[in-house]
Design brief:
The complex is a heterodimer of chains A (743) and B (154).
Chain A: H1 10-15, E1 23-24, E2 28-34, E3 39-44, H2 55-58, H3 71-81, E4 88-96, E5 99-110, E6 113-119, H4 121-127, H5 135-151, H6 155-170, E7 174-180, E8 186-193, E9 204-205, H7 212-220, E10 223-226, E11 234-237, H8 255-264, E12 268-276, E13 279-288, H9 297-342, H10 346-352, H11 354-360, E14 365-369, E15 374-378, H12 383-394, E16 401-404, E17 423-428, E18 434-439, E19 444-448, E20 455-456, E21 462-463, E22 471-475, H13 484-553, H14 556-585, E23 594-597, H15 598-608, H16 610-615, E24 619-622, E25 628-631, H17 633-650, E26 658-666, E27 669-675, H18 706-716, E28 720-725, E29 731-737
Parallel strand pairs in A: 24-26
Antiparallel strand pairs in A: 1-11, 2-3, 2-6, 3-11, 4-5, 5-6, 7-8, 7-13, 8-9, 10-12, 12-13, 14-15, 14-18, 16-17, 17-18, 19-22, 20-21, 23-25, 26-27, 27-29, 28-29
Chain B: E1 7-12, H1 16-28, E2 33-38, H2 41-48, E3 62-65, H3 74-83, E4 92-96, H4 101-109, E5 114-117, H5 122-139, H6 149-153
Parallel strand pairs in B: 1-2, 1-3, 3-4, 4-5
Classes of the chains: A alpha+beta (743), B alpha/beta (154).
Chain lengths: 743, 154
């Protein structure tokens, strides 16, 4: 019996019991066996074509009666597999009208029943054009294809190799590789076809073309062969509408699908499932147009293996292409990152490298929020929209990565009419850093293999599509999708930026700390200065008051004395203010760093101090060679001059005093020492004398700024200073100038 | 009977002018007094401990101590006075231009008897020293410190 009626609508098609058609394709014979005796329960009506007995005679008898004796053993063996849905191939010898005859057979379990399918492999091979069907040929096919896939440069090229090789092996007119999208639409990514055929490459087929139940069968059976679309299916005797034929290769095809193929002009078809992790990700679909096309059972097994191996290999290749591409993008990313680490501020670097970011993320525009302004590059939305994204999309969530193909989907109520971009991917690193990438709307045409919206016939009933003429659909309102790679790169960038944020925070903390200690320093400085500047003022005011008294009492000698004291105090104050001004200039007003020749410097100083030196009867000895110092010339001179004048003032208390200036290279810079032969300094004063206004002997000249200046110059030159002295044996003052990287 | 100086001052002051002005103010206070002066913290301690060149020094009635001193600060001198059981009861008046809160706090912690800013207005300074002399020298005689016996018998 033949089911001629079509399901009345597409929904019905989903419900169609395609696993239980109750009929088989006529190119083979099917027997349903039960019990240990292998009694024949059902047999396909066409059994008489190959068996000596009629179908009616066969029912109820043991299969041993219709097969050669020796088959029994292999049947028992096959049943011992007892694996449901595991099909065991067999070579079966049939008692035919003209004697024993070999067939390609296979057995599998369906419920409690054993299903035996027989096909005339030799005849099929005779009919088909394929030449060599040996196992060797199968391995050659697989090995060759794998080699070619591994050499290919893209997913498309690899898929095309698969189609070419399979077409050559099977002899179909067209071999296509479909890939399913997340939504289930099929996309022809590769194709091998006869020259005269219309290309299908690039076409899409809607998910509804393959109903859910059919999809399940593709996962269950890795191959599905329809050698003759137009063949009339044959019924079982007796009828067995409930027989689960999921694993039968002879299972008759859904009339709906037959109509579908017929409408496409297909005469024979075969499909091989491409499965990964139990999920159908694609199909290799083979079409034949000018008549039936049979593949023997052996050939089909080869195809199944081919499908399994190729599916895995294509996925591996795809991953490897993706990995290579990712590696390339990551390498560019690392270049950008190097730009970060040399940049003073990450924000500025991002602004500077915006073009490269555009390239790296394949975007049309980007904005960078640095906590104050939006920095832009390329096509970007208005400030208002950016603000909305910041507020609505991120909602203050730090460390989130978001991506949308359509802004309107997340920014309801915001006018996007003039917005030049459509999709966005954003990285939020901190309150200060937000990086948004934008893509313009991607308007593209989808080429469907026929109008995908289902087709109604004249009576309003949905039927399989009659037309497979290319049907174009324009898709808009979205940007190019953000790929897994885009996410991965963005993720990495975010990690890096987050690191910078942390580092920047640490840097800020350090600056705060420095600022704190600096402000303490300033406080101390203000205290010292106010005290020491006030001191002569107190003096002057004091003497003025004394003068008033003395004038009243007419003591003019006292008045004269007071005036001389006032004069002295005023002049001291003047000196103090001048010294302080000089002191405060150290490090604030600096010229360019240069190499300063110490010998030249000392010669000048020697001349400047000739008078003072002879006055205290001291000799200035320069211990050549002194070498050079790299730094600020004026400050270097000031420090060394201060050390020398300090030695003249305090270190020449003995006759034949000697001041020796020396210089030597030390770890981390160059040290200049000034050794005097004075009374020396007690260890407890060694540190204090470098403090501002800290004078050891109030009776000697000086404002107490000189050595403090030396310390400040040392600090400015990344160095330090100090004194070594044993009381009674003179003192050696030293200053170390540090190294500069730009030297 | 030899009249003993009523008030003996030790002025610890590095600034000559301030010392002269202080001496002048003390002189004008019209009280019998002796003023000794040292110029830095180390000298002050040596004087009070009667060491070195100050072996023969006589302990003062009151110490007028400037805070900002060479070699040893006024606070350090004060600390040493308070740490020495013999000197601890000695009245110390801190006399400085500094108005620094930390200095004041440190000085009071060390039980300073009075803390006076050297006023810019000398009239005030004058009166302050006068009152000081009366207060410490007349009304409020310093606790009986065991003085050097030779000095006592002078």
């Amino acid at each position: 019996m033949i089911k001629d009626s079509l399901p009345t609508d597409l929904e019905k098609c989903e419900d169609e019991p395609i696993q239980r058609p109750g009929v088989v394709q006529p190119h083979g014979v099917m027997l349903v066996l039960s019990g240990e005796e292998f009694l024949i329960k059902n047999v396909s009506e066409n059994a008489g074509d190959i068996f000596a007995m009629t179908p009616e005679e066969m029912i109820g008898s043991s299969v041993i009666d219709v097969l050669a004796e020796e088959n029994r053993e292999s049947l028992v063996e096959a049943i011992d597999w007892k694996l449901p849905s595991h099909t065991v191939p067999l070579r079966v010898t049939v008692k035919a009208k003209d004697g024993p005859k070999d067939y390609d057979g296979s057995v599998h379990l369906s419920g409690d029943d054993l299903i035996l399918e027989l096909e005339n492999g030799r005849e099929i091979e005779k009919r088909s054009n394929a030449v060599d069907r040996s196992v060797k040929h199968h391995f050659d096919l697989t090995a060759r294809t794998l080699r070619l896939i591994s050499r290919s440069q893209s997913n498309e090229e690899a898929a095309e190799v698969v189609c070419q090789e399979l077409k050559a092996f099977t002899g179909y007119d067209r071999v296509m590789l479909y890939q399913f999208s997340e939504e289930g639409h099929g996309h022809v990514v590769a194709e091998a076809r006869e020259q005269n055929l219309e290309p299908f490459l690039g076409l899409r087929y809607p998910a509804s073309d393959i109903p859910k139940n059919a999809r399940e069968l593709y996962v269950r059976n890795f191959i599905r062969s329809i050698p003759d679309v137009n063949a009339q299916p044959v019924s079982l005797l007796p009828e067995h509408p409930n027989l689960d034929m999921s694993d039968c290769s002879l299972r008759a095809v859904s009339p709906f699908h037959i109509r579908y193929l017929q409408n496409m002009g297909v005469a024979a078809s075969m499909s091989i499932s491409l499965i990964e992790d139990g999920k159908l990700w694609g199909l290799i679909a083979c079409h034949h147009y000018d008549g039936p096309h049979h593949l023997s059972a052996t050939m089909r097994v080869s195809c199944v293996h081919f499908g399994l191996v190729v599916s895995a290999q294509l996925k591996i290749a795809a991953r490897s292409f993706a990995a290579t591409n990712l590696a390339r993008r990551k390498a560019r990313m690392s270049d950008l990152i190097r730009a970060f680490s040399t940049g003073e501020k990450v924000g500025e670097t991002i602004s500077m490298k915006q073009k490269e970011f555009l390239d790296l993320f394949c975007v049309d525009g980007l904005v960078f929020w640095n906590g104050e302004d939006w920095h832009r590059e390329g096509a970007t939305p208005s400030d208002e929209i950016c603000e909305a994204i910041r507020g609505k999309v991120f909602q203050g969530r730090v460390q989130s990565l978001v991506a949308f193909e359509s802004l309107s989907s997340v920014l309801s109520g915001i006018d996007l009419t003039d917005c030049p971009v459509c999709g966005m991917m954003g990285i939020w690193c901190s309150e200060d850093w937000l990086l948004l990438f934008f893509r313009k709307e991607f308007v593209y045409e989808v080429r469907w293999g026929g109008d995908p919206r289902g087709t109604k016939d004249a009576t309003g009933v949905l039927t399989p599509r009659n037309s497979f003429r290319e049907w174009k659909e324009t898709v808009s309102g979205k940007c190019r999708p953000w790929s897994e790679q885009d996410h991965e790169i963005a993720d990495e960038l975010q990690t890096i930026l987050a690191g910078y944020v942390l580092r920047q925070r640490a840097h800020l903390e350090r600056l705060n700390h420095e600022l704190e200690s600096r402000s303490k320093e300033i406080e101390q400085f203000a205290y010292t200065v106010s005290h020491d500047l006030k001191s002569p003022l107190v003096t002057i005011t004091g003497w003025i008051d004394a003068t008033k008294e003395d004038l009243e009492s007419g003591d003019l000698d006292e008045v004269r004395f007071a005036l001389s004291r006032i004069e002295g105090a005023a002049s001291r104050m003047g000196n103090l203010i001048e010294d302080l001004l000089d002191f405060s200039r150290i490090g604030r007003v600096t010229g360019k760093r240069e190499h300063v020749d110490l010998s030249d410097l000392m010669e000048r100083l020697k001349q400047d101090y000739t008078f003072q030196l002879s006055d205290c009867g001291a000799e200035l000895v320069i211990d050549e060679p002194l070498g050079q110092i790299y730094g600020y010339p004026i400050e270097i001179q000031r420090a060394i001059e201060n050390l020398v004048s300090n030695a003249i003032r305090h270190g020449c208390t003995r006759p034949d005093a000697k001041i020796v200036v020396n210089s030597l290279k030390v770890v981390g810079g160059r040290k200049v020492t000034v050794t005097d032969s004075g009374d020396g300094i007690a260890p407890e004063h060694h540190e204090r004398i470098f403090e501002l206004f800290n004078r050891l002997d109030p009776r000697t000249e000086g404002t107490g700024v000189g050595l403090a200046s030396v310390a400040k110059v040392a600090q400015l030159h990344r160095g330090d200073c100090g004194v070594e002295s044993v009381p009674g044996e003179g003192a050696t003052f030293w200053i170390r100038f540090g190294n500069w990287s730009d030297k | 009977m030899k009249q003993e100086a009523l008030v003996r001052f030790l002025l610890v002051e590095d600034d000559d002018d301030h010392a002269l002005l202080a001496e002048r103010a003390i002189r004008k206070a019209r009280i019998v007094n002796v003023i000794d002066r040292v110029r830095d913290g180390e000298e002050a301690i040596a004087y009070l401990k009667q060491e070195g060149e100050f072996e023969d020094a006589i302990l003062p009635t009151v110490v007028l101590l400037d805070l900002k001193l060479p070699k040893k600060s006024g606070i350090e001198v004060l600390q040493e006075i308070r740490d020495d059981p013999k000197l601890a009861p000695l009245p110390v008046v801190v006399l400085t231009t500094s108005g620094n809160e930390n200095d004041i706090a440190a000085a009071y912690k060390l039980n300073v008897n009075s803390y006076l800013r050297k006023p810019v207005d000398f009239e005030q300074f004058h009166r302050m020293v006068g009152e000081l002399c009366l207060y410490w020298g007349v009304w409020n005689r310093a606790p009986d410190i065991q003085r050097d016996s030779t000095a006592e018998s002078e």
